[in-house]
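TL;DR need structure tokens for one chain.
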Amino acid sequence: MNILHLKYALEVANSGSVNKAAETLFIAQPNLSRSIKELENDLGITIFDRSSKGMKLTSEGEEFIKYARKILDMVDDVEKMYKDGVSLKQKFSVSVPRASYISEAFANFTNKIECKPTEIFYKETNSQATILNILNSDYKLGIIRYATSYDTYFKEMLDEKELSYDLIGEFNYVLVMNKDNPVAQNDEITFSDLSRLIEIAHADPFVPTLPLSLVKKEELSDNIARRIFVFERASQFELLSENNEVFMWVSPLPEKTLERYGLVQRYCHENKKLYRDVLIYRKNYAFSDLDKMFIKELYNSKLKCFNNI
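>> reply
TL;DR here they are.
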């Protein structure tokens, strides 16, 4: 086994195709196929299932790719340290749901980073992508969000995938809307009040392995006739700020965010569904100093936002 073969296998795993990987690596497809086969023979395992649809990792292959990523990351670090004559960078990575209290914690965290080489990766996405990001070793920390009704499902899945998890907080969604929204000043907001408005909803599923149609049925009520689906947060705040008819269900927001966009947040007592935000990471992973710093800011921001409602 050599480092080059590890790079080949990783590229095939990323692309799901020998042909695509060969194009990226600028080598002939037969040579790449032969190298992958030699690697499998050397290890005595089958890394990929071959089919007309492409190359799919076997269970053994998934485990092998995790180690291959770690090895190649360490090789890159060593090369940078000795070839370029520079010190190793601090690295921090976290994959999170789209939540303003988390982004506030991240912003506060960045203000405390020491003045030395550092690489920071912050990705907002859904729970399924976050879990994959951790399993593939691309990200060290993750935060997933799910309704408490799915608690058993998620804990069993995380245990099966050998991921550790810590509860960050449990909460009801609040309504966020423009301060001039027609229902913003209501003493109590009901589902029927919302039926004539436009809901903003994130378009990707919350629950791994469940189809979007089922997730939408679980998470989105039938009484809303007009709905805008978004995939990121920048557009949602522009919509909330500029359109008095829109609203969104969110975890509690920081006061600074509300003031910046001219928004208010309100409870709807008819919405009794509880959600959990959970910190996940690989078992036996030792938190770095940067990790600990971010986690501290995360809990501080959570306490401040959730207690102000």
